[in-house]
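Spend some time on this chain, tokens included, and walk me through the fold:

. . .
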Amino acid sequence: MQETPIAVAKTKSRFPKAVPYIIGNEAAERFSYYGLRSILVTFLVAQFYNPTLDPALTQTAEAHANASTHFFVALSYFMPLLGGIMADWFFGKYKVILWLSIVYCLGNLFTSSFTTNLPLFTMGLVLIATGAGGIKSCTTANVGDQFDKNNQDLMSKVYGWFYFSINAGSMVSFALIPWAYKNLGPRIAFGIPGTLMALATIIFFSGRKMYVRVPPAGVNKNNFVFISIYALFNLKKKQKGQSLLDVSKGPFDAEKVEGIKAVWRVMGVFFFTLAYWIVWDQNLSEWVLQSNKMDRVINFGFFKYEFIPGQIQITNAIFLLIFIPIFNYWIYPKLDKMGLKTTLLRRFGAGLVLTALSFVVIAMIQTNIDHGGHPTLWWQVFAYILLSAAEVLVSITGLEYAYTHSPKSMKSTMTAIFLMVVALGNVITGLINENISQKGFLAPYMRGANFYWCFVGMIAVFVVAFLFVSPRMKLRNYIDEPEVDSNEAIAAIE
């Protein structure tokens, strides 16, 4: 007698209950972070570095404010590495996000309360950078932790809403906070981001019973730092035909060592993206100060609007949302059909060229200003168009490159290193501005438009080097050529 097969109805996938809390938390937190950044550089100049608007102090004051802003951003992008280690090795994501959110709120309290006290205001910025950076690596991973095999088909949709919440929060803050600063004063302007961060923390805490919590795994000795340092201090053990890192096999897991090799290969590519990150954050600092000297009344045809310095940053978010689908669904496929394969390395190169062109526009604007002109803000909009296209080609491609060219065990490490490159770029720009503010050796050579032409030249050097080196890079795509698990290899032999 044959058994009649029983049809099993497929259960409809359901979104994890924690999703609304995570997305709500992210939208409020990003509003808070970008709201503060939208007015930070203008506030530092007006309140602390040149409150009397003395023309003789303009260069020094602006350079000082730019330096402070870039160091703040650098700390924000350095902390994800430490936050990830704290979460993965010791405390788990939930505790790290909650504790550092409280630190974040405390920082907002300092910045809104001490708007006339530079040391305490700076302490607030340090606390905010520590909190914002520390939770950055945990929040994205926390989204993925909420899914299992029964609803993983919904993960891409949730990540889509997650990143939409980031852009929505930043766009609203770019429009609102500069207006609040101009009309309501710095205490309220910095207080609004603080209120939103407090709301973000409350939203996150409210979902505490809903979260899937992955426990910390403890200290993992097979990591990038330990293996690389061991290889460096044991150079004499290297045999003929071996790579430098092969000496770590034995004391460390051989598969992990191969993963570290992939990380170093990708870091070679990331070195060239440093040119992009040295300049990108200037659109939230140097460009904002430049817009203050321009004709900010824009005629849209049916109405005119005078932008407040800081509000023009909203154009980057708008063009980014427009360009992502255009590049992915039209430009890349069109070029591929024409035989011009849009490899990741070619995208990097094109992105660096567009970045340089955006700064050519900014340098030309500054030349006009230096000669007493008052150019229209439309020219900065044009620069933002070029920079936003470059962001798609460099930043988004960089994240894809980090994922596809690193083994499964190293993907978190690669993301952290990618963010570290952002931090390093801001440190370099911060040091340049610090030298100018202290009237150092760079000050005479980087006045006015020369400041921007210097960065155009710097990017050009990176582009030429990239064109020479990129064809010789040995790369491996782990999606097309997946790593073979030791158990799978044994099974194949058997």
In short: The beta strands are 297-299, 304-306. Confidence is low (pLDDT under 50) at residues 1-9, 486-494. The two ends are 37 Å apart (CA to CA).
